[in-house]
Design a protein that fits this description.
Elements lengths: L1 H19 L45 E14 L11 E16 L2 E16 L2 E18 L7 E11 L4 E2 L7 E3 L5 E12 L5 E14 L3 H5 L9 E2 L5 E3 L4 E18 L2 E12 L7 E12 L4 E11 L6 E4 L2 E4 L5 E13 L1
Antiparallel strand pairs: 1-2, 1-18, 2-3, 3-4, 4-5, 5-8, 6-7, 8-9, 9-12, 10-11, 12-13, 13-14, 14-15, 15-18, 16-17
Length: 346
């Protein structure tokens, strides 16, 4: 009986297991390896692109050894009278000024070139137009120094001075006392130059300077104007030999230039030249002094006060007496200028 109970229990258990089980498939083992199944997700990637930014080469800027300065100015002065009880003469004057500078400076070398032009006219009631200023000057100097710390240069200098139009002893306008390149002065020599670091003070001394005086008008040359050898005539007044158009001297030259702002918007400039000939009366000094005072109103408007003093033993003054010009000895020449004008610098 007890055995029958165990048999029934075993039968019931067998049926229960078979009812809840699932059919499984087995894969035979091959070579001792158990196969596995793996799911792999395949992702498509876009190719990676990188934009290359190419920078152009940085330009190298070199500092030019050349510097320039240009200035053009027009100065005007005018006075007018209408029924003025005290009397007076109306007049108007104009002056054109130009200054052009080119400087080459590199290491121990310096080359300075300067061109200066001046031309002025004046018109008064009842009087023809007269010239008040006429000058053209070119200066060039080349210097070399032993080191970059020294302010002394071994310098070769060349200067040229002349004028644009005829000059007269007014009111006589029939006979010209000077003409273009009559006279013209050229200085060429070698010496030593000392300049301050800011170039506002320049001093030059030359023991050997050639001075050439040109009178390129035969009529003036025959008169012996400006120190050239004049023409020779016989007792009857007939021309034997014409006057020479040039004269060359060797002498001692000293020049100086000074610029300074003495007060706010007030600048002073002084140029001085002293020359003495070794052969002809050494110690008799030719003087050329030019003093200018600039009063700056603004960037474009300036007032100008100038004085020039000239003494040259070779220049004889002339005086008109009874319609005739009489030659006198050398005298100190003085010129003054006052004007207000517009100046453009570029």
């Amino acid at each position: 009986m007890k055995l029958l109970s165990y048999a029934l229990l075993l039968f019931t258990l067998t049926i229960s297991i078979n009812s809840f089980s699932q059919e499984t498939a087995t894969t035979p083992i091959i070579g001792g390896l158990i196969p596995t199944t793996t799911l792999v997700k395949v992702t498509t990637y876009e190719p990676l692109t990188v934009a290359l930014k190419i920078h152009p080469p940085t330009p190298i800027y070199t500092v030019s050894p050349w510097t320039k300065k240009n200035s053009l100015g027009f100065y005007l002065s005018e006075i007018a009278f209408v029924n003025w009880s005290a009397g007076g003469t109306s007049s108007i004057s104009g002056l054109v000024k130009g200054d052009f500078t080119r400087v080459y400076a590199k290491k121990n070398r310096k080359w300075v070139n300067e061109l200066v032009i001046r031309y002025g006219l004046n018109k008064q009631d009842g009087i023809e137009v007269r010239k008040t200023e006429d000058a053209i000057r070119f200066n060039s100097s080349f210097g070399y120094r032993n080191d970059t710390l020294s302010n002394w240069y071994h310098t070769a200098k060349f200067n040229f001075n002349s004028q644009f139009s005829n000059g007269y002893s007014y009111p006589n306008k029939e006979i010209a006392k000077s003409k273009p390149l009559a006279p013209a002065y050229a200085f060429m020599g070698m010496g030593a130059e000392n300049s301050s670091k800011d170039k506002n003070r320049i001093f030059y001394i030359s023991p050997f300077t050639f001075k050439t005086t040109l009178v390129l008008d035969q009529k003036l040359a025959n008169q012996g104007a400006f120190g050239v050898e004049k023409a020779t005539y016989d007792s009857a007044g007939l021309l034997i030999s014409e006057g020479k158009m040039s004269k060359t001297e060797l002498g001692f030259l000293v020049t100086s230039s000074y610029k300074k702002e003495i007060a706010k918007n007030i600048n002073i400039e002084n140029r001085l030249s002293l020359y003495s000939d070794y052969i002809n009366n050494f110690g008799n000094v030719d003087v050329d002094c030019d003093l200018t005072l600039d009063l700056v109103v603004n960037q474009y408007v300036k007032a100008n006060i100038g004085t020039r003093i000239v003494y040259d033993d070779d220049i004889k003054t002339k005086k008109e007496i009874d319609g005739k010009q009489i030659t006198e000895g050398p005298k100190t020449q003085l010129k003054q200028l006052l004007g207000v004008g517009i100046v453009y610098a570029f």
